[in-house]
Amino acid sequence: MTSLTLPHTGSYYAATANPVPLWPALAENLTVDVAIIGGGFTGVAAAVELAERGRSVALVEANRIGWGASGRNGGQITGSLSGDTAMERQFTRILGDGAKDFVWALRWRGHDIIRNRVGKYGIACDLKHGQVEAAWQESHVAGLEATHARAVAHGMGDEVELVRGAALREYVGTDIYPAGLVNRRNMHVHSLNLCQGEAMAAESLGARIFTGTKVDRITYGPRPVLQCAGGRITADKVLIAGNFLHDFGRSRLAGRLFPASLGIVATEPLSEAVAQQILPRDYALYDTRFVLDYYRLTADHRLIFGSGTNYSGRDSQDLDERMRPAIERTFPQLRGVSIDYAWSGQDGISINRIPQLGSLDSNVFYAQGYSGHGIATSHIMAEIIAGALCGENRDFDAFSKVRHWRFPVGRALGGLGISLGMALFKLRDSKLSGAK
């Protein structure tokens, strides 16, 4: 049966993706150990983990592999955990004195998974090392100093460096930042190629992958069943890896997650000389504002640039006009540069910024809510939940016991509330730093 899917968004990633099979739609009845709903990073990474452990796996995706946020993001793989302070508080209650070390190790766990998987399966995804967290204003430098000191204390002295003033020009060709924390362990990547490459790796291990296959309902029971138009999948266990885009478990999960629309553009290819001027070491970068800019170079010397977030639940509009002032403020030498690609993607934001792992039944699990740090975090959560599906519960239990906040209003009003809060943070950053 041919897969009837929506095309990928008009992104740089989609335009330059490696050729992959157009996986078929489900047209049969299957019985497997684990059925996975969702073909983004969480779903495909979990499929690899489970297939490597010898489990039979079927993954269904309503559109294409990497169709959502997994194939539309900024491509940065960093050790920045959204909600890390909240995690430490919650995990101290659950894990005791080892909580801080547990959270610190989580920062880098996704890096190891991705790097090892890319090497093991030969995934061509332009994986590069090096990233800078740039202080937006002088008052933010102390935070970078604290992060640097903590990294050194954990044995990362050879991988991190706090760079100030003119010395930062070795990494980024702009004068707008007073300092930056250089991190050579962090990485950046062609997101869609990584996601699709992992799907092919899972398939090579025996996993069955179906696209253009929407799950109409889950029939709960000792062996849950995914009911789809072209067939059904009976499984010992089910993983829902679809973020806020799915409606399963709405009564249990309502108010826990809100959509954030991320706007990103890619410029025309820059000359080698200009690329060297703006990012001399080919490192990725993001700044320290609450509503931040983030950018990096592609393999063909385009600048991928993301800026701002909206919480309306609708895709960002007029991205070219919105992004250009931020690009030209950062790099005046790019004034007038052509924008070849502009696209939006929706991420899932949890109120306390802690990823949400749990179960809707004894054999139906979910993972969601990575709050803008999805590439590394999705791989960490996939490893944890795959372990839980195989009986290794320690890390899963820690996350499943986290107390998550819930907005006592509908998704639209909740999103509006977050939008107003983000606007205040953005105004605060602007006033504190002056017009840059």
TrEMBL record:
Residues 33-386 form the FAD dependent oxidoreductase domain. It holds the Pfam family DAO. The keyword ATP-binding does not apply. Keywords: Oxidoreductase. Gene3D superfamilies: D-Amino Acid Oxidase, subunit A, domain 2 (3.30.9.10), FAD/NAD(P)-binding domain (3.50.50.60). The keyword Lipid biosynthesis does not apply. GO terms for cellular component: cytoplasm. GO terms for molecular function: oxidoreductase activity. This is FAD-dependent oxidoreductase. InterPro entries: FAD-dep_OxRdtase (IPR006076), FAD/NAD-bd_sf (IPR036188).
